[in-house]
Amino acid sequence: MSRRGTRMTMTTLDKLTPIDQKPSASERVAERLIGLISSGNIAPGDKLPSENELSKALQVSRPVVREALRGLAMMGIVASRQGGGCYVTDLKPQRLMAPLSFALSLNDYNIESLFRARQVIDTGIAAEAARYATDEQIASLSELVDAGYKLIDDPVGFRVMDAQFHELIAVAANNDFLEKVSGSLYSLAIEQRRKASAKPGVLEVSAADHAAICAAIAGRDPEAAREAMSVHVENIRRTTLAVMDEA
């Protein structure tokens, strides 16, 4: 390659991946407002000053403020209400994590990276569930395990039970953020897992995995719960990839 060609390539890369790019004015405004909210100066439910008032207070133009508010709205931090005005939302984790779920569903992802993420998140959640699950939640998990064995010949029914089983473990972990992330990851590659669940022997293995996870959580053993969930996620990964290879 000629020196000229190399120089042109580097110039193009520089344009595509700027180094040490400074945040824009709107990003700085958004960060400032987030700081005011996190410090308690602005509380959930508070009405924000008008765009004109914010532009004067922050010494930026109204378009900059408008763009910043648009970004915060996309993040679920602020919202407009009927009758006018922009308000801070309730800031509940479910609302704040919604953009993550949407982004994950839109973006292409590598199936191996998905299951590596599930190994980190799902195993951690299982360990937390072993610490925090209530007796009632453990009883419900046990009932779902029993139901799973009865649904081995019913892939649709088993998948319904499976979703409830994993959701209950996430709830038992007593962490809203982990619960939302886990749910988002669970929903990915669902079509491939649907096909895998119809393969002979797959649901028998999943039912046994569920029993091991439930036993570890009931025994209040975080490390055993982590290990049992790790085995389960690996089995899901293996059968999912097998279906994808066939396709």
UniProtKB/TrEMBL annotation:
UniProt entry tagged with the keyword Transcription: yes
Family annotation (Pfam families): FCD, GntR
Alphabetical list of SMART domains matching this protein: FCD, HTH_GNTR
Highest taxon in the source lineage: Bacteria
All residue ranges annotated as the HTH gntR-type domain in the record: 23-91
PROSITE patterns, per the entry: HTH_GNTR
Keyword field contains Ligase: no
Source organism per UniProt: Devosia nitrariae
UniProt KW keywords: DNA-binding, Transcription, Transcription regulation
The protein's name: GntR family transcriptional regulator
